Amino acid sequence: MRNSTIYLKSVLLFGICLVLLSCRHTSNDRLPDPEIRAGIAKVDGKVMNFHLKKGEEYPTIILAVPNPVTAEMGIFKTLLSEDGSFHFEAPVECTVNIGAIGSKMFGDNVFSVGLIPAEVTKFEISYDASENIKANMVSSIGLTSNDLPNYYKMFINFTERPDNESFYTMKPEEFSHFAIEKLMIQRLKRSINDSLISGEAKNLITNQCKLKYLKGCLLTYSEYMSGNYRHFKPKGEPGNYIPQEPNRLYYAFLKDFNLSDPQYLYNDQYTEVLKTILSNKTLNIPAIKDTPVDEWLKEVKTTMADLIGSDTGLFYELLAANAYSRQFNEELKPLSDKQKENIRSYFKNAEITKILLKRSDVVVKLELEKNYYKTTVNTTPAVPKEALMKTILSKYKGKAVLIDFWATWCAPCLDAMKETRDVKRDLHDKDIAFVYITNSSSPQKLWEEKIKIIGGEHYYLTQDEWDYLLDSYSFSGIPSYLFYDKEGVLKNKITAYPGTEKMIKMINELLL
């Protein structure tokens, strides 16, 4: 499977690590418990000793912010100024937040940053003589200068070390105990260096890792087992493996995670866990639709209360909020009048109501834009792979064509899809076809769901066809793009989303 090479991956990977809390933290290790409250947090930053080389463009700085109510990572971008300064004003959904700052110019380095509504965080990044990157933050959030870069580095140390033993033959309950009691503890010990970070940072890292392991391993047992089989299967065994499907009682491990802990509001993986629970086939939680929230939760608790270990708390409040956000994010469907009424009458925290209603107004506009390009699922032409691209292009004679290579598992691809909405809005009356190509590494049912809100022309290739095309154009990662003019002549090819303005400019050049 080809991995994305776009540098935004570093920021989006802010939330990726796999480990379980191995000991209880003292109250002194906890940052202030966040509360749901909408606001604007500001960052005034400076890259020290910045000098733009001749011919270079000003670098883009990216800020990523977790959103526990709307259930999407907020991504904000700005260009570095001539003097090395940058500034963000980012909407946030909590009284205290931990975001991440990254840039291509920082390489693989990503920095944690504190964000508090109505507060300006001062952030300074510097290079020393040996080109080591250091950061300093002035914020009321209690993180040290060592925490800012090491927080992310320890995540990466954890995720880049794969499991070194096979366990795909274990029954679900047996595996859950094995994973919690052994695998996660091993990863923790070999990845987190207590001497480099504060207790507060260790608490944050451990919580984030715990949630990711819950989402990426325990809650997705079948996929995780299939991956372990592919890595350790005996020679000569078939490539496909169908693990045993766990029953509802398998998920009893959920009570070990204390999912109503408000400290999780710092972590973007909290919403990933909630989204995974909402879509889990075994747990079978119904879509909220126009059902009153208290009635919906009553039904949810018949399934979840004994597994969670409680029938009250933050978990249920955020699960309900995320049920509405799932409608926003996966269907681009705004709230109905009945849903608005249900939200207003249920949530005691008026901030949750305000956030959901505001997001619905945004989705109304996105829903209109979605209709500019209807989703068309195309049968892949039955031709030799060498003739595949020419055959696809022949369908769009007289039009410029943008071909987007992507995958459902590629976070930078999905982020680029959102930015491309602006491109489509500006070019919807032009002779341009937006063609999206993926392959069997994207689960077909998931692909079918994702493309509903993408629009455009879609093709689902075999692995062999995919590999041939990427090799033909010398692409080593995704998202990657091909730009063809109206005569079917390839005019440009790039890897990584270039930004909305540049994308519009490149497409307009095809239309001349």
What count of helical segments does DSSP give? 15
Give the topology string: H per helix, E per strand: HEEEEEEEEHHHHHHHHHEHEHEHEHEEH
Q: How far apart lie the N and C ends?
A: 37 Å
State the share of residues found in helices, binned by percent.
Answer: 25-40%
Number of discrete domains: 2
For the biggest β-sheet, the strand order reads: 9-12-11-10-13-14
* Uncertain residue ranges: 1-26
Walk me through this protein's architecture.
The protein is α/β, with parallel strands linked by helices and 512 residues long. The chain has two domains: 1-245, no CATH class; 375-510, Glutaredoxin. It has 15 helices and 14 strands. It has helices spanning 8-12, 147-159, 172-191, 199-218, 221-232, 269-279, 293-308, 314-331, 337-346, 350-370, 388-394, 411-427, 444-450, 463-472, 500-510, and strands at residues 36-47, 60-65, 74-79, 85-94, 97-103, 110-115, 120-127, 133-138, 375-377, 400-405, 432-439, 456-461, 480-484, 490-495. The strands form three sheets. Strands 9-12-11-10-13-14 form a six-stranded mixed sheet. Strands 4-1-7-8 form a four-stranded mixed sheet. Helix 8 packs parallel to helix 10 (350-370). It is globular. The two termini are 37 Å apart. Mean pLDDT is 88; it is low at 1-26.
In brief:
The protein is of the alpha/beta class and 512 residues long. Helices cover 39% and strands 19% of the residues. The protein starts with 7 loop residues before the first helix and ends with a helix.
